Q: What sequence folds into this?
């Protein structure tokens, strides 16, 4: 168990190193950053002094080493457009993105599991077929279109929900949360549904397929032969076995939820990291792009690690190789 | 005569498919008395397992019991509402399946699975159920049960898992145990132990046992009576010595002739030509007629009904009292 965790941990570090090299390479290949900072009439001497102050004339390896050591301390340099440290820009935007991602994932998990279980157990009902149809829409419609449709319906036509922004936020230390105000909750509903819909349909289809598979197994038949209640069989025995693959997918999807929040944040003008990233791309603000890349990979790698460890919590067969010999 | 624990009369089970309605069980009748072990033998697809599942009410759609009666100690249990038959399952009828490796839920400790079953059927408290679970594990021969009760299924060998399955089947002191090929998936050396265990439990608790198997050695060793099934019907039923030593039905004869013995090495084993008909193509009359060496005209027209011959009962026109011929 410890060896397993340690091995996974080392692999995660390897992945992060590789991503770090790619992020650093962006500085070398995406044009001259000095040109982005200065205006046309800046003199060559001034350009050289900016170049030197940014450390851009040092050897590549030195620059990489410096970048790497700074990155370890969450220092990602200074944004070209805002003239502010990237880390504080990201930290300021992160709560918005994380809150959106968490609410979207919880929505996707709860709705997806409920709908999946229902459509597996009551396969031939009209509601189950409706869920299947909805899941098809959720999988095939692109995110931005769903967002725009929601805005049109609930913000423009009905006027129930705001079409953009986070609503009122409350500061809790450095974390700003929109989940403590009514307007914050109103503002998060549509972006969260837009962001989570694809995950929800994915989870729903997965739960349905897994559940049908599990219900056919011998241990479910034996549980029925033991006279256990239908409730205990479906929600105790079958659902727990269904959740093993669901945890993986939901966990890995949490990474993509954060990564793909770029689109949702753009549609809803949600002041998160994704929106920051889109603005950075438009302005070739490489420090932000590189830092965002590192952040998202770190989240992905961490989630992978957590999912691997969670597996062993749910499934005792993976827990120890020592107990097997007993 | 005392009331039998299980009494099945003219049981019919159908599977409704898009093309046709297939009759998997067609007029099966038998009884099992208290403490008696009835063996059910036959080829794959003869309807042995389906009979067991029908008794415990686990025939899943598109299958259904389409006729006949099943009585457990005098009360009818076929066509009970789902919630009531659930209360019968596990409490009054215990079932053991073929593959112990897949019968237990891999994510739950075996103790939790036993305690859950006990508490479903009795009012015992959590701790009392746990003590009972430990006693049960000891009874089925699991060493150090107070330790092993917290183990997961994957920590047990196949034979030990089948013992756990048996403990689960008997945890509410059922009147009847249905064992569906309980030893098929096990090593030969373990098979004998499991069979001895089932036999001992039946004797100690006065439980009736329906033992479905295709292993004639197990039948001869364990059972009091044996039913030979063929194509959804009982071809012959009777005390095990009689049926094994002096089978009447031509199919039973073939089956017994196919048992290898160490003594008769010079003799070739008997083979029954052909294969059992598919459910969709059962011939009219006696279903065995295409493979039977003694078949005559009537076998292809009229379905034979069970006829008593001493302690045995055989469904074959050869034993018709009016035109009795030498068997």
A:
């Amino acid at each position: 168990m410890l060896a397993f965790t340690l091995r996974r941990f080392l692999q995660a570090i390897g992945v992060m190193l590789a991503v770090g090299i790619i992020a650093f390479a962006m500085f070398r290949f995406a044009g001259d950053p000095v040109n982005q900072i200065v205006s046309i009439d800046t003199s060559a001497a001034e350009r050289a002094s900016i170049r030197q102050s940014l450390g851009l004339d040092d050897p590549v390896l030195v620059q990489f080493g410096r970048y790497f050591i700074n990155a370890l301390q969450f220092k990602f340099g200074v944004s070209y457009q805002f003239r502010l440290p990237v880390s504080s820009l990201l930290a300021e935007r992160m709560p918005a993105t994380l809150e959106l991602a968490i609410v979207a994932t919880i929505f996707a998990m709860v709705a997806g599991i409920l709908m999946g279980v229902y459509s597996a157990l009551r396969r031939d009902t009209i509601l189950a077929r409706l869920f299947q149809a909805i899941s098809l829409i959720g999988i095939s419609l692109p995110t931005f279109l769903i967002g725009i449709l929601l805005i049109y319906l609930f913000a423009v036509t009905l006027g129930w929900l705001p079409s953009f922004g986070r609503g009122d936020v409350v500061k809790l230390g450095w974390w700003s949360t929109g989940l403590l105000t009514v307007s914050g909750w109103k503002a998060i509903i549509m972006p969260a549904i837009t962001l989570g819909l694809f995950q929800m349909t994915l989870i729903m289809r997965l739960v349905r397929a897994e559940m049908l598979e599990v219900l056919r197994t011998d241990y479910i038949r034996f549980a029925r032969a033991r006279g256990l209640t239908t409730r205990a069989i479906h929600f105790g025995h079958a659902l727990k076995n269904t959740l093993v693959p669901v945890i993986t997918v939901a966990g890995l999807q949490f990474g993509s939820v954060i990564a793909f929040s770029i689109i949702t944040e753009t549609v809803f003008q949600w002041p998160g990291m994704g929106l920051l990233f889109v603005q950075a791309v438009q302005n070739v603000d490489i420090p932000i792009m590189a830092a965002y890349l590192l952040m998202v990979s770190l989240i992905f790698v961490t989630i992978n690690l957590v999912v691997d460890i969670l597996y062993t919590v749910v499934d005792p067969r993976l827990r120890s190789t020592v107990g097997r010999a007993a | 005569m005392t009331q039998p624990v299980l009494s099945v009369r003219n049981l019919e089970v159908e599977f409704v498919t898009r093309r046709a309605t297939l009759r998997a069980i067609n007029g099966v009748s038998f009884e099992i008395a208290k403490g008696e072990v009835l063996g059910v033998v036959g080829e794959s697809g003869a309807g042995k397992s389906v009979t067991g599942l029908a008794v415990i009410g686990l025939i899943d759609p598109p299958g259904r019991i389409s006729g006949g009666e099943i009585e457990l100690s005098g009360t009818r249990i076929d066509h009970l509402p789902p919630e009531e038959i659930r209360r019968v399952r596990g409490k009054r009828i215990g079932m053991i399946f073929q593959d112990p490796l897949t019968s237990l839920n891999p994510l739950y400790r075996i103790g939790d699975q036993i305690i859950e079953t006990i508490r479903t059927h009795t009012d015992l408290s959590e701790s009392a159920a746990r003590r009972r679970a430990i006693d049960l594990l000891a009874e089925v021969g699991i060493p150090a049960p107070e330790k092993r009760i917290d183990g997961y299924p994957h920590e047990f060998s196949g034979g030990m898992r089948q013992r756990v399955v048996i403990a689960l089947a008997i945890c509410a002191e059922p009147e009847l145990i249905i064992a569906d090929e309980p030893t098929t998936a096990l090593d030969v050396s373990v098979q004998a132990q499991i069979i001895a265990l089932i036999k001992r439990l039946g004797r100690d608790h006065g439980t009736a046992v329906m033992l479905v198997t295709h292993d004639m050695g197990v039948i001869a060793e364990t059972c009091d009576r044996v039913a030979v099934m063929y194509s959804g019907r009982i071809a012959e039923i009777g005390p095990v010595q009689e049926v094994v030593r002096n089978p009447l039905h031509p199919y039973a004869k073939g089956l017994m002739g196919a048992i290898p013995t160490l003594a008769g090495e010079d003799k070739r084993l008997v083979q029954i030509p052909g294969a059992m008909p598919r459910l969709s193509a059962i011939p009219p009359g006696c279903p065995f007629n295409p493979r039977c060496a003694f078949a005559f005209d009537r076998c292809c027209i009229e379905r034979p009904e069970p006829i008593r011959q001493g302690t045995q009962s055989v469904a074959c026109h050869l034993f018709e009292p009016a035109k009795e011929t030498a068997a």
Summary: The radius of gyration of chain A is 24 Å. Residues 92-271 of chain A form a domain with the MetI-like fold fold (CATH 1.10.3720.10).
